[in-house]
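Please predict the structure of the following assembly.
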Amino acid sequence: MQPNTQLEKTNQKVETTPAEPLVQQKDRWAFVHEVEKLPGGENILDCLQCGLCAGTCPTRFAMDYSPIQIIKMIHLGMREEVLSSSTIWVCSSCYSCYSRCPRAVDITTLMMSLRNLAMKEKIPVKKEIKPKFHKTFYEIVRKYGRLHEPELLMKILKKSDLPNLYNNVKFGWSLLRKGRLKLRPTKIGNHAELLAILEKTAKEEAQ
Amino acid sequence: MKYAFYPGCAVHHSSKEYGESCRAISKALDVELAEIPDWSCCGAIDAVYSYRPLSSIALVARDLALVEKMGMDVVTLCSACYYTLNRTNKLLKENSELKNKVDAALSSAGLSYSGNVRVRHFLEALITDVGLQRIKERVKTPLTALNVASYYGCFLVRPQYLTSFDDPEHPKSLDDLAEALGASKVEYYGKIRCCGASLQITDEKVMLEMSKKILLSAKDAGANCIITACPLCHFNLDAKQKAIESKFDVKIDLPILHFTQLVGLAFAIPPKDLGLDKNFVVPNKILLQYARSVA
Amino acid sequence: MLEEPRIGVFICHCGGNISDTIDVARVKEIIGSLGHVKLAETFEYMCSNPGQEMIKKAIDEHKLNRVVVASCSPRMHLDTFRQAVKSAGLNSYLLDMINIREHCSWVHDDKEKATSKAIALIRGAVERAKFLEPLTPKSLKVTESVLVIGGGIAGIYSALELADKGYQVYLVERNPSIGGHMAQLSKTFPTFDCSACILTPKMVSVSQHPNIKIFTNAEPVAVKGSPGNYQVDIRIRPRYVNLEKCTACGECARKCPVKKPSKFEENLGQEKAIYIPFKQAIPNCYVIDKDYCLFLTRGICRICERFCKGEAIDFTQQEQVVSLDVGAIIACTGYSLIDSKLFGQYNYGYHPDIVTNLQFERLMLQGLHKPSNGEVPKKIAFILCVGSRSTATNACEYCCKIGCMNAIKHALLLDKSVPGAEPWIFYTDIRAHGKGYEEFYAKAREHHTTFIRGRVAEVVPKGNSLVVKAEDTVLGKQIEEPFDLVVLSPALVPNISTKELAEMLGIDLGPDSFFLEVHHKLRGVETKREGIFIAGCAQGPKDIRETTMESMATASKVATFLGRGKISVSPEVAFLVPDKCNLCGVCIEQCPTKAIKKGKKEVTIDPISCVGCGICVPVCPKEAIDLKHSTEAQLIAQIEGVSREGDTSPKIIAFIERMTAYGSADLGGQSRRSYTSQVRLVGVPSTGRLGIKHLLHAFASGADGVIFVEGDDSLFKEDQLRERIIQLKKDLGKFGIQSLRIQSITTTIPQFEKIMSLFDAFVERISKLGPIPREKREELEKYLKGEQIATQHAT
C-alpha cells in the first residue's frame, strides 16, 4: 500500500480513539425484543415519539426520565438506565398515557412489567420502600388472604424516621376512633386453598 | 336483581362506611348482594402484580372461580378491584400459556375457572340494570341546593380495553346520577385525574400533590361536595384532606361522599345508616341541612 | 380446430444466451418430430430482420397456419413476432411465444437438464398452438363527453381543462354552489394568495364555458355502461328557487324569519332558511333549506314568495333524475375534517373558543374574534395532528399533509393582522416538503412564532383562558400554557359519500378509505376500471397546488382516453359457452370489474369491461364460461404437453400470472438467479383462471406438484387466492392427492428471490413425498376422460 502522503503533508493528527457508540451494536435490539415480549411492551416500536404520554402524565414532575424518554431509551437498548430509573416507580398506573396514546402503546402496563423486571434482577432503587412495599404486600396477602394495613405499614416504614412514624400512628388512631381500623388481621376461612394455589404459582415464578 | 358481591379489602376495613351505605341503598332498591364466601384480596392494581404477576392473576382467578360457582355477575365498589378483576379475565382469555399455568394452580386447590364471570362496577350495575328512572322515583329529598362534583379517577374509565361503559374523557355516569337525585353537576379539572392512590404509602408527597389539584379545582368550580366511586380515591380526598391542607397551607374543607352516601341522602336514609359519621371532612352546612331534613 | 394445424417452430440461439446452455440442435430434432409440426428451425437472432424474414418466408413456403417462437420473454418481443406473422398474412393470435431464456437457459447450468426442460416448455406451446384461434381486437366508438363528480377546486380545474380541449363536460356538485373547501379559505400557503381571488374567476369561467354544464344540489345515483360509454343517472334535489329567474337580490333572505347555522361559515355564523351559500356562489342563486323553511316543515309562512319580485320562488319543484351519456368519469369528491369531538381531551364542542383550522379561516375572514365573547384573541395555540398519525380506532394513520403549513400560514397571517399576536404551534414533526415550504417555515420562526415539539395532551378551560398541557420534548419539560383561542388541525378523511360512490363506479378504496389509484407512481390518476379517473383529495390528502396539478394530469389522461375517438379492446376476454349457463350468478360476485351482468333470461359478459383475468371461469359450476386465447382446450393441451415431456422426477408445474409475477421471474432470469430445473413455468392471465380440473390434468400427465405464483397487484386478490387454494386442497383430497402438493405465493416484481427459494424448497418437499404413483395417474386420467365424455353428452 502507498503511504498516505496527503496526510503527511498536511501534518494532520489522526484521532486514535474512535467515537464511543451510544449503544453496543450487538445489544442494539436485544432489549427492544425483550420489552416487546413483556405485557404492555407489544407496540413499543410503534411509538412515534410525539411526547403525548409525557405531556399527560400526572406524576411526570417526580420522574427522572419522562415516559417518552424511557421509550426512547428502550429503543436504544439502554437497559440499565431504564431499569434503574425512578420513572418506573413513580408511575401511578393511572392509564392516562395509554388512554391518549395515538399508537396504542400500553405504557402503564409496561411500567408494571419493568418494575417486575427490576425487582427480579434486584436493581438498586433510589427509594427502598418501593420494592419493599410490593414484597410485603404480597407476603401479607399470602399470610391472611387479605390486606392488613397496620402490619404493612409497620413492616415497611423506616423506624428511624420518627416524625413520619408518629404521623402514621396519629392518623391510625383517628381511623381507629371512627371504627375504620382493625388492629387484628382478618384471615380468610379457606386459607389452605389459597396457600395451595400460591405455592404452585410461586414455584412457576421461581423458574 | 341479585349479584355476587366483592367488597375488597378497603371496603372491608378502612372504608366501612362505603359498604354500609351501599347495602342501605341496595336494600331500598331491592338489589340483593351476596358476598363471596372467603374472597381474598385482588392484589391492588399492581401491588402484587409487579412483584409476582402469575400469583396475582391466580389470586384473582380464585375469587372469580368462587363467583362462577355462584352463577351470577360480580359487582365491586372499588375501581381498583374492578380493574384488577377485569384484567385477570382479559389475560386469561388472551394468553393460553398463562391460562394453563393458572388452571394448574387452581386445580391444586380443587378449583377451576372457565372465564365466564362478568365483572361489573356497582355504579354501572345501578345505572344500567336498575336505571336512573327507578332511582329518581325513589328520591324523597331531592338534593336541589347541592352542586356536586363527580370524581371518576382512573379505573372507572380507563384503560378502554377493560372498561367501556363511560366515555374516558367526558364521563357522565356519576353526573347523571347526581342530576337524577336533584343535584346540579359541576364541571371541573380534576374529574378524571389520578389521585395517586397507588403511591399513597410509598410516595405520599407525590400523592398529596395530585389529590390537592383535584380538590382545589372542584372547590374553585363551586362544588359543595365531591362524590367518588372508589374507596381508595375517597380515602385520599377525604381522610388525607387535612394533611393536604396543612402541607400546602390551603383551606379546602370540601366534604367527600361515596356516591352511595349521596344516593342514600336523597332516599332519606338516616345519615348513621350511611356511615356519614365515619367520614373525615364533616359534611358542611348544606349537607347537614339534608341530614337534618331526614332526621 | 378450424383446420389441420401446420405448425412452424422457431428456436432462437440468442447469440449464445440460449444455445450455450441449451442444445438447440437436439431441441430442433425432437420438436421437429412432433405431430403437426411441419418445420422446426433454429437461428442466431430470431428477433433480427433476417430472423423475422425467415419466419415470414417459412409461413409462405410451408403454408404454416400456426407459429411457435421459442426465445426470450414475450414481455420483450411478443409485439415484434406478432407484427412479423401479421405481415405474412397470418392472424397475430395464431402465434405463441415460449420463454426459454429468462425461464430456462439463464437460470440453469446443467446443459442436459436445461435442454430437457426447454423441450418440455416448447412442447407445451406446440400442443397449445394446435388450438389457437384467430382473434381481432374490438374497436369501439366512445362518447366524447365527461362527467366530473365534485365541484371543488379539483373538479373545477379538470372540467375547465377538458372543456378547453373541446369535450362536453358535466360538473355535478352535491352542495348548492361549486367551489368546495377552497371557497372557505382566507389566504393560501406559501404565497399568501387570497383564496377567493384566485378561485372565483375560475368558478365564473366554469359557469360561462359553453362546453360545461353544471348540476348543483345533485349527485349521481346509478352508473351503467362500459368504458367509453357510461350512462349515469343524476339526482337533482329541488332548490325551490328557479335558477333562471333568481337575480340574487337577497330580498327573500331579508324577509325570511328563520335563522340557522351557516355551513359555509362552519357554524360560526347564521344565515336564513332561504340563503345563498356565499356571495360569489355559482350558480348565483338562492336556495331554500327544507329542514328549516317554515312552509316546507309546517306549511306556514311563504313570505319569501310574496317579496320575490322575479317570482323565482317555486315550492312545486320536485326531485328529478337526469340521465347523462359520458365516455369517462372523474371522481373528485374531496375531503371532510374528522370530527374533533372524537378526541375528547381537546374539549372541542365543550368550549366555543376551541375551533378547527377551517373555522379559524372563517374567523379570520369575519374579522378575528373569540366566538365566546367577540374579543380579539392575542395568544393562540395551534394544535397539530388531531386524529392524524394515529393507530387508535376512529383516527387516521396517515398524515393530513396540510396541517403544518396551514398552521404556519395562520401564524404569519396573525403577525400581519393582529398587533401583538402570539401564535404557538404545537407539533409532532413539521413537514415542509413542497416548493417554498421550508422557507415559509423559516419565515414563521423569524416572525416570532413559538414552536413547541410535543403532541398536546389536553386543553382545559380555566377561567377566561384555555390551558394547553403538553410536554416540550426538546426541553424535556411539561408545560401548561394559557391561551385565548385554541385551533385544532383535524385529520382529513374522505367525504361520507366516497365509499358509496366507489361501489357505484366499481372502483377500489385503499386501506385509508380514499379512492385507490392503479399505481402509486406510474398510474396515479387512473382507477382499476377503464374510463374512470380520480383527482384531488378524494384520492388522499393534498394541498391546493398538488390538487390543481393532479387535476390537470387527470384531464390529460381523460383526453388521451377519449381523444382517439374509439377504444381498442383486447379480444382476450371471457365468453359464455352456449346453452350451459343456469343463471346461478356465482361468476358475478367473483368478477372484479363488474363485467358480468344478469338479465332476466341470460347472463351477459361485457367484452369492454372484461379484462380477461379468467377468475370467473373455474368458479362456474356448469363450465359455461371460457376465456379467449386461454381457452380450456388451449390451457389443458399446454399443461399436458409440459407435464408429459421428459423423465425428471419430481416434475413441478408453476402457473405464473402473466404480468407482475411473470415479470418477477424474468427479473430473476436477468439476475441469473439459478434454481432447480424441475420447475416448469406456464403463464396464465391470473392464477384465478385455474380450477381443480387443471390440477388433475397436470397430475395425471406427469406433474408431482403445482405452484401458483400471483402478482401482488393482481385483480385476483391475496385472500381470494388463499381461499381458492384451501378449496383446491380439499378437492385434491377427494382424489387422494396430498394437499402438500400444491402451494401458492404472491410477489412483486423485485421479489423474485422469494419465488426462486420457494421453487427450491418446494421441489425438496415434493421429493420427500415422492412421485405420484403410476396407478394414481391412470385413475385420474380415467376420471378425466369420463368427465370429458360426460360433458360432451351434456352438450
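Residues 187 and 195 of chain C are 5 Å apart (CA to CA). The first strand of chain C starts at residue 7 and ends at 12.
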